[in-house]
């Protein structure tokens, strides 16, 4: 859109305005006065606002981190609005602050309540600040209502919090009692089971079996040993003669000859045959041979064997054998009894395994119940602390950060705005409408358009030619219009003055 | 040039024209111009251009258009039809002023023929009832000389529509019409004939009369016609004849 187009557009708008000058003029005047009247009838609203600080970060919280739950302010604006605008609170306000006129029926009352609710705006200002505002046509009432609302809210919110945490505590307490009873039952069952089950534990049975097994193997070894002893004694008894026979003296001499010969051989290794020792020894040997050959000596042995006596070694051996056999029998009996006990232990182990399943189920029940109960006990203590916090007024507290100020000046649209708006609209509306008309009207208003429509040359653009008489008429029209505008403006501001003075 | 102002007297003008009608030459044309003269106030009132007018823009635009037209015709005289796309399109104003601009040149004369049977426009230039174009077509006894009138502007003549307003446009194709155009343009080589014709959008007159003319000029009034209307109007004419469009504010 170039400058030329804008200029042409403006010219066209002016032309249209001139063509419909009286329409434009009077519509402008009517618009201005309508807006002025509207502004006069407009009820100025006084807005009062206050800020509440939701103090959830007090000194108690870090101290009790994880122990007590400080009642939080979740989605605070909604909570605040719900509490502040509860039916009870609103009804009280409606009655106390003169919203109700005598003779109002239920429907009107409901409507007034809903209107009041709409006028109260609650918004979060940052993390912990809550802004509450209320507008009313009467500044006194606006101020009173908001003060009332905020007081009520702060009182009510602490009461609500207290009852909430108390109820939480009571609930947890009830639960913990229930678990306590359950735990007692589980304990009872486990006790009964243990009393009826005397087989001992799996491990004790296993130990016993192990012990028996090792004893048995020891006994078996002992038994083997005893048996072999019996065997060897039997052999020895067989070897030994029952009666004892004396050795002949010749045997003695022969043994001494053998010894002497061996000694002689040794001497001959180191000495010559002429050495006196060797000669002596030879003589000795010869003497021994002689003794053997002596018949007296050989007879001696025969006489001795006729007079026989009991062999003491034999007797001893027999006694020993008997004792060994007795011991072996005893060991065998012990082994048998041990084996019987082992089989008993095996049977016991089987029984223990069977009862173990039942026992573990009972124990599990008991453990779970116990865990829950202990947890609840801990929670109960936390709840007690939280409740105490709320009773003491700690935890989240609401404070009035910025108290409501009495409204000295109306907020929103004021009369002066309407005065200005009226003036502006009186000009802008007709001009704007003319502009829209020029813009939307499909008829050709710009010579440039011609070139887009046809190839035929545009010979020229004839400016509007106004004749002298027409010029005079136009001048008169302009004078008339200006005087009307001046009159209307005077009337307009006269009215403005009248309204302003009349109000004050 | 005398600046003597005389009150406008149409009857006198007619007499004057008739007196001089047979002896016209360049010199005589010039003399004829002095017979009577419209004052500046009259010209202003009739919305006619004149050299010392207040609003020079209008004067310059018409001079410029005149120059273009004469250039296009190759400096020969022509018969130009001026018509508008719609009613009240300002074709009479354009026709009058084109003629007036041609007449500004001392070597040229212009003749306006009012062909507006339905809303006679020539009364602007000539007051009272006079025989004219329609009478010429209807009655063989009326000669061209009888219907040419002075306008009070030097070198600018007028043929009013006349009194026989009930003739049908079929007359435009008659022998008399042919005789009319030939006589007008062929008689004087420096005479430029301009036909002021009813709007092409509402009557058939413009289409029929276009055949008798050398050129056609279409007047597009400001803010009165749509693109479609303009396209339809243009389609009525032979591309060669339609010499240009004039946008009238």
Commentary on this structure:
The complex is a heterodimer of chains A (504) and B (249). By secondary structure, chain A is of the alpha+beta class. Helices cover 74% and strands 8% of the residues of chain A. Chain A has 15 helices and 7 strands. In chain A, the strands form 2 sheets. A 4-stranded antiparallel beta sheet of chain A has the order 2-3-1-6. A two-stranded antiparallel sheet of chain A has the order 4-5. In chain A, helix 1 packs across helix 13, helix 7 (139-196) packs antiparallel against helix 12 (312-392) and helix 8 packs antiparallel against helix 12 (312-392). The longest helix of chain A has 81 residues, at 312-392. Chain A is elongated. Chain B is α/β, with parallel strands linked by helices and 249 residues long. Chain B has a single domain (12-248), classed as 3-Layer(aba) Sandwich (Rossmann fold). Chain B has helices at 10-20, 26-32, 40-45, 56-72, 91-103, 133-138, 144-147, 175-187, 205-210, 227-235, and strands at 79-84, 109-114, 149-150, 156-159, 191-196, 215-221, 242-248. Chain B has a 7-stranded mixed beta sheet with strand order 3-4-2-5-1-6-7, sandwiched between helices. The longest helix of chain B has 17 residues, at 56-72. Chain B starts with 9 loop residues before the first helix and ends with a strand. The interface between A and B is medium-sized, with 26 and 38 residues. Strand 7 (458-462) of chain A pairs parallel with strand 7 of chain B.
């Amino acid at each position: 859109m170039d400058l030329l187009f804008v200029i042409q557009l403006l010219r066209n708008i002016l032309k249209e305005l001139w063509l419909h000058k009286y329409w434009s003029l009077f519509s402008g005047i009517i618009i201005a006065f309508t807006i002025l009247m509207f502004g006069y009838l407009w009820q100025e609203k006084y807005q009062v606002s206050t800020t509440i600080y939701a103090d959830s970060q007090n000194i108690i919280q870090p101290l009790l981190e994880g122990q007590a739950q400080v009642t939080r302010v979740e989605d605070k604006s909604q909570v605040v609005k719900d509490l502040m605008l509860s039916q009870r609170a609103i009804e009280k306000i409606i009655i106390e602050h003169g919203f109700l006129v005598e003779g109002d029926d239920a429907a009107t009352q409901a409507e007034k309540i809903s209107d009041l609710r709409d006028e109260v705006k609650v918004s979060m200002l940052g993390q912990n600040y809550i802004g509450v505002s209320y507008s009313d046509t009467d500044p006194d009432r606006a101020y009173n209502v908001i003060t009332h609302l905020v007081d009520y809210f702060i009182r009510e919110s602490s009461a609500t919090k207290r009852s909430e945490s108390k109820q939480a505590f009571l609930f947890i307490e009830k639960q913990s009692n229930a678990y306590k009873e359950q735990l007692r039952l589980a304990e009872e069952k486990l006790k009964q089971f243990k009393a009826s089950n005397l087989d001992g534990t799996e491990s004790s049975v296993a130990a016993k079996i192990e012990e028996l097994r090792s004893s048995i193997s020891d006994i078996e070894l002992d038994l083997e040993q005893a048996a072999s002893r019996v065997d060897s004694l039997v052999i020895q008894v067989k070897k030994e003669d029952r009666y004892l026979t004396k050795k002949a003296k010749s045997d003695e001499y022969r043994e001494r000859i053998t010894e002497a010969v061996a000694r002689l051989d040794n001497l001959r290794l180191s000495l010559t045959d002429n050495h006196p020792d060797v000669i002596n020894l030879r003589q000795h040997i010869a003497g021994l041979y002689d003794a053997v050959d002596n018949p007296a000596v050989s007879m001696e042995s025969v006489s001795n064997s006729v007079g026989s006596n009991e062999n003491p070694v034999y007797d001893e051996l027999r006694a020993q054998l008997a004792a060994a056999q007795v011991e072996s029998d005893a060991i065998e009996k012990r082994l048998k009894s041990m084996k019987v006990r082992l089989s008993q232990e095996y049977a016991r182990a089987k029984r223990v395994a069977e009862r173990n399943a039942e026992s573990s189920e009972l124990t599990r029940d008991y453990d779970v119940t116990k865990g829950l109960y202990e947890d609840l006990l801990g929670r109960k203590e936390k709840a007690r602390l939280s409740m105490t916090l709320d009773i003491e007024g700690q935890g989240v507290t609401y404070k009035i950060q910025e108290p409501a100020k009495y409204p000295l000046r109306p907020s929103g649209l004021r009369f002066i705005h309407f005065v200005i708006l009226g003036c502006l609209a009186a000009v802008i509306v007709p001009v704007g409408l003319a502009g829209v008309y020029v813009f939307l009207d499909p008829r050709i208003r710009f010579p440039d358009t011609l070139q887009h429509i046809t190839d035929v040359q545009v010979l020229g653009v004839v400016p509007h030619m106004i004749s002298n008489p027409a010029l005079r008429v136009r001048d008169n029209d302009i004078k008339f219009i200006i005087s009307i505008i001046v009159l209307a403006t005077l009337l307009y501001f006269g009215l403005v003055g009248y309204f302003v003075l009349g109000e004050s | 040039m005398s600046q003597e102002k005389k009150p406008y007297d149409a009857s006198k003008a007619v007499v004057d024209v008739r007196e001089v009608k047979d002896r016209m030459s360049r010199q005589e044309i010039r003399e004829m111009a002095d017979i009577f003269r419209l004052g500046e106030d009259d010209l202003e009132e009739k919305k006619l251009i004149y050299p010392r007018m207040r609003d020079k823009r209008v004067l310059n635009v018409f001079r410029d258009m005149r120059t273009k037209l004469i250039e296009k015709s190759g400096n020969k005289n022509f018969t130009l039809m001026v018509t508008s796309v719609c009613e009240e399109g300002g074709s009479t104003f354009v026709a009058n002023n084109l003629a007036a601009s041609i007449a500004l040149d001392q070597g040229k004369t212009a003749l306006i023929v009012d062909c507006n049977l339905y809303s006679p426009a020539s009364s602007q230039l000539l007051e009272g009832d006079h025989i004219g174009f329609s009478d010429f077509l209807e009655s063989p006894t009326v000669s061209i000389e009888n219907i040419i009138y002075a306008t009070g502007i030097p070198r600018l003549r007028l043929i009013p529509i006349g009194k026989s307003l009930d003739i049908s446009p079929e007359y435009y194709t008659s022998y008399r019409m042919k005789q009319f155009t030939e006589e007008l343009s062929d008689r004087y080589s420096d005479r430029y004939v301009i036909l002021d014709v009813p709007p092409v959008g509402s009557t058939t007159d413009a289409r029929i009369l276009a055949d008798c003319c050398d050129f056609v000029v279409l007047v597009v009034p400001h803010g009165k016609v749509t693109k479609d209307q303009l396209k339809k109007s243009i389609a009525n004419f032979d591309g060669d004849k339609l010499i240009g469009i004039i946008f009238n504010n």
